[in-house]
Amino acid sequence: MIVLFLLLCITDGVVSQIRYSVPEEAGHGTFVGNIAEDLGLDMTKIASRRFQVVPSSRTPYLEVNMENGILFINEKIDREQICKQSASCLLHLEVFLENPLELFRVEIEVVDINDNPPSFPETDITVEISESAVPGTRFPLESAFDPDVGSNALRTYDITTNNYFYLDVQTQTDGNKFAELVLEKSLDREQQASHRYVLTAVDGGQPPRTGTALLVVKVLDSNDNVPVFDQPVYSVSLQENTPAGTLVIQLNATDLDEGQNGEIVYSFSNHISSRVKDLFAIDARTGRIEVRSEVDFEESSLYQIFVQAKDLGPNAVAAHCKVLVKIMDVNDNAPDITFSTVTESVSERAAPGTVIALLSVTDKDAEENGKIHVEILGDVPFKLKPSFRNYFTIVTDGPLNRENADSYSVTVVARDTGTPSLATSKSIKVQVSDENDNAPTFTQPIYDVYVTENNVPGAYIHAVTALDPDVGQNALISYSIMECDIQGMSVKTYVSINEETGYLYALRSFDYEQLKDFTFMVQAKDAGSPELLSNATVKVIIVDQNDNPPSVIAPLGKNGTARQPLPRSAEPGYLVTRIIAMDADDGENARLSYSIQRGNENGMFRMDWRTGELRTARRVSTKRDPNQMYDLLIEVRDHGQPPLSSTASVFVVLVDSVVEDHRERGTAKSKETSLDLTLILIIALGSVSFIFLLAMIVLAVRCQKDKKLNFYTCLTSDCCLGCATCCSRHARARKKKLSKSDIMLVQSANVTGAGTAQVPVEESGSFGSHHQNQNYCYQVCLTPESAKTDLMFLKPCSPSRSTDTEHNPCGAIVTGYTDQQPDIISNGSILSSETKHQRAELSYLVDRPRRVNSSAFQEADLVSSKDSGHGDSEQGDSDHDATNRGHSTGKLSVLDRLACHWSVRCGNGTKLVAGANKQTIHSLTGLCLPAPSPHRPDRIPPSTSSFYLFHLKVHIRVFFRIGLLSYECSYLCIHPCDCLGPAPSVCVYAHVFWKATWSALGDEPTAYEMSHV
């Protein structure tokens, strides 16, 4: 009958353990148990998860059906053959499932059956006893042997019923039974010289089995004294692996008799085991017990040796003692490592903790010698995890990267704690399988490809290369060109790419004059799953070839021949004409040289080979120059390889004067389509001047209309593009004066009103006493509407020493002194103190006018040829600031000038800031001027308290085929005005400046300019 024991232990690596019991001698095919069912496994997943037996645990006695998990006996089991007399006889079987890895330990206990009777070593046992032996004397008998264990082992001995002897059955320390024959009644040899009895050994089986032997007791004549040992039991310790011949113990027994009756002989008792006789030997004369062969602690830790001493006299009676030999363990066994299962490969994407292998470690030694420490050598991304009992699992300890290491040699070392320590190591090789975790990478992010024009279509031009550290399909790269348009056509009509090699080919012949370069993207994509890709930029640069001859574009004439007059009075060096040629090529291929090839045999002309200017080399002579006309052939040659050239015919006609020649050709000139250079310049200047005057008229009309308005508004939308000042347009009479009640002081919310302080203002020596501590800011702004022009009128801020609230007529400047920072007004609302720090950039700009020394308006600003407001002021301009911070004295930086459009600082320290955006500010044109000086009455009257300033700049460039015309015009007007009244029609100070520049091809620019104040 089969008994099932199931023990479940949830551990790491070994999930469960199950135990079965099976009787020995069971036949082939005997059912032991259903492993899968008893462990609660899903029967449908056994095959897919590869249910299998660990090879190292296989045994010929058992077999497992891998389809249904049934365990059965494959071969009859003889417990006595497998386990000898071991109390426990276990067969071990290990099975596991994959995905995930689960290990199951199966223990099969072989249950002993009473299939062996006890048996004696000999069928006849002879014991000699002296007739003088006293009752109670004990005589050990040879023990019977029963290979069965447990309850089936030897239990007791019996002897035939008699009047002289009885048996005393005793148990050894190892559990074995032995019998001693005890004399119950004195013997008399003369009456009975021998006694015969049947000695029976009985086991404990059901039913019990027996074994018998004939016990013959011979009665001997008496020997008066029996040998006596020093002590009945001896105890000795012996290290294992002690070499043969080593003394175990020296026994000593004495006999009071003399002669042969006192001469003692030592020997092992009859009932000791044969194994003891194999391991130990005794000297019969000396009683010296020695090691015969090495003892092994792992075999047995204790041996019992029964020794008898007998004299040589007649009827000798033996004395007995017991020697207990305790074997001491020596660290003579290194740990043993056994790998139960090993995963062949692991994915580089495997999560930390993935099981790689299962191993067990054992050591046959005991105690400290049997304690084991297990570790993995080296810096590898694996670690050991204790599992069940002496089992360990090797798991991943971090991310794996096949590109860094495609395999690992994992060495496990097991070391015991004995002295000296013994160690064992075993290695396994773990392959890291590739995952597509690396995109192809181009060797260069940008490829510059140089292709000479006029190439052959289909020609190889370059190769792009991408590398992928993956392997296999994951590293199989294909190249492609990303779609884009070049001059309205697909890039794939220009170039192609070999998808396997990355070679680039030109699909057409390139022309440098039509296409100098183009850029496209190439893509490298691997064949992994999912696909990974990367891009690189390819810039194809067409290299110019000298494939275009020079083309003469001037002078032009009929039928390719130009006619040029030459006065007879021309001095040497007189410019007859200038040959202008162009070459569609580039670089050296377009660098031209000019020369006279024909018609200058008498050396009348010379040609500048660089500029193409044809000049006279000498005066006209009647003798040397009898002809009225010179037919010159001019060659224009480039510097390419090989060089290309073109020619032009020029007829030079001798005339008395150029005017006569013009009269003669007046009719022909009217028919030519090209305009004279002077005429082009006159038309261009006239057109620009007309546009400028028209703009001035429109602005003047608009300004006059605005002055006639009867009310002002302080809405931020009417402010000049974020300028700091705007007029309060309360309904009032045009020339109504303001009272103090109309003035309002704006202070911070935290002002208590106590303690006022005057802000110091620097004093300039250029003013009289009535102008001290005054700072003026003049500005003009344009509205966001391009079609309109809004004019701004500003009054200078008059300092006020009073802390009373006053109302400014313009409604934009707040006066007063306090210890607190006045609030900032932006777009008509007061900013809180929390937002003041956001205006840090404006703070020093607003404070700038107070620190700038008042001086006369610097004339250098008015005649400066550079713009004021775009960062290009000259060194001497008032807007120049070498510190870039605006802290210079008497100078205004570009930043100050821009700030003028959106900030105003009154002389008494009060700030007012309007929120204009800087992008708009940069588009404005204006000036921030110092206060008027009484020393320059011819420019700005000192009595004038308010000023209107208008500044307009125009810059126009017109491109022609033969040159460039540039025109600049500037108009500045300053005159007094009244915020409540119209502006006067006459400027107190006006400055008009215009400049025209003509740049012909190859010539130095020619400038015409005019300035009027």
From TrEMBL:
Disordered as annotated region, ranges: 856-887
Assigned keywords, A-Z: Calcium, Cell adhesion, Cell membrane, Glycoprotein, Membrane, Repeat, Signal, Transmembrane, Transmembrane helix
Signal peptide: 1-16
All copies of domain Cadherin, residue ranges: 14-120, 121-229, 230-337, 338-442, 443-552, 566-656
SMART domains noted in UniProt: CA
Subcellular localization, as worded in the UniProt entry: Cell membrane
Transmembrane segments: 677-701
GO annotation, biological process: anatomical structure morphogenesis; homophilic cell adhesion via plasma membrane adhesion molecules
Name the UniProt record assigns to this protein: Protocadherin 10b
Record organism: Hucho hucho
